[in-house]
Design goal:
Layout: E1 11-12, E2 17-20, E3 27-29, E4 35-36, E5 41-44, H1 53-69, H2 81-85, H3 94-137, H4 143-151, H5 159-185, H6 220-223, E6 245-246, E7 250-251, H7 255-260, E8 269-270
Antiparallel strand pairs: 1-4, 2-3, 2-5, 6-8, 7-8
């Protein structure tokens, strides 16, 4: 708040057109309550008998952007009031200005409605995706199929039995790999070597969620190969610098893709040596 004397010409009213004279040279209509101009903010008062204020608002940003791109700076770019005064604007008849401004506002309104529709669709898609995943883990997606199989007398292998086979096969593969290591080293297997097999923890079946018939609980650890598909974080972390990127090589799947839910790899590569 400011408590002191001031020139009334510095008062900004709702709807006044302002131009920021530092930084990116943005402009727009003031939407707040009555206020005072700060330094480095310019107020443009259009003579509505000569130029429509909305036509001015739609015409000026392109010129300001061009000035911004061609303004050298070491820190923050600055715009002078003289530069604003010297901008050459197209100047159609006043009725044409109003027609142009009205059409632009109509198109922007349609665009805003389209963006709002896309946002609503995105929100619905997010909820739909969550409901599909929920239905999948609760067995509702395959409920009809299970009923049809049962009606046809086709036995469906219980998941618990499948899990037992998976774990038995994993142990068999592990033992074969260990025996090969012993054979390659020329040493006999030590006593009790079989007990070193990593056994995944069992899931506590006491849960509030009732699983469909033939389903069972399983840890992710029980379903991945310890040596081939172990859960691993990326090897680079904060050590991965943009200076490592090369035109070809291995693509990177990074945080950006995870945050966006992007199924595709990143745009950058890293050489095998890194």
């Amino acid at each position: 708040m400011f408590d002191g004397d001031f020139d009334k010409s510095y008062v900004v009213k709702t709807g006044d057109f302002l131009v920021g004279m530092d930084g990116d040279f943005q402009c727009g209509f003031w939407r707040g309550p009555p206020a005072l101009l700060n330094q480095r903010v310019c107020k443009l008062i259009a003579d509505e008998s000569k130029i429509d204020s909305h036509f001015l608002a739609y015409s000026l940003p392109g010129y300001l952007n061009l000035i911004n791109r061609n303004t050298p700076s070491i820190t923050v770019k600055h715009l002078s009031s003289r530069t604003i005064q010297d901008i050459p604007l197209p100047f159609p008849p006043i009725d044409a200005q109003r027609d142009i401004a009205s059409k632009v506002e109509e198109l922007f309104s349609d665009l805003d409605a389209g963006v709002a529709g896309l946002e609503r669709t995105r929100a619905k898609l997010k909820r739909y995706r969550a409901s599909v995943l929920k239905a999948a883990v609760e067995g509702r997606l395959t409920e009809k199929w299970r009923a049809e199989q049962k009606a046809k007398g086709i036995a469906v292998e219980p998941a618990a039995k499948l899990l037992d086979r998976i774990l038995a096969e994993r142990r068999k593969n592990w033992e074969a790999a260990q025996l090969k290591k012993f054979a390659d080293s020329g040493k006999p297997p030590p006593k009790g070597w079989e007990k070193k097999h990593p056994v995944p923890a069992l899931v506590d079946s006491a849960s509030e969620v009732t699983l469909p018939e033939s389903w069972c609980w399983a840890h992710i650890e029980q379903l991945i190969e310890p040596e081939k598909h172990a859960l691993k974080a990326g090897p680079f972390g904060s050590a991965l610098k943009k200076s490592f990127y090369v035109p070809t090589g291995f693509k990177i799947y990074g945080q950006e893709q995870v945050i966006r839910g992007d199924p595709y790899f990143g745009d950058y590569f890293i050489s095998e040596e890194k």
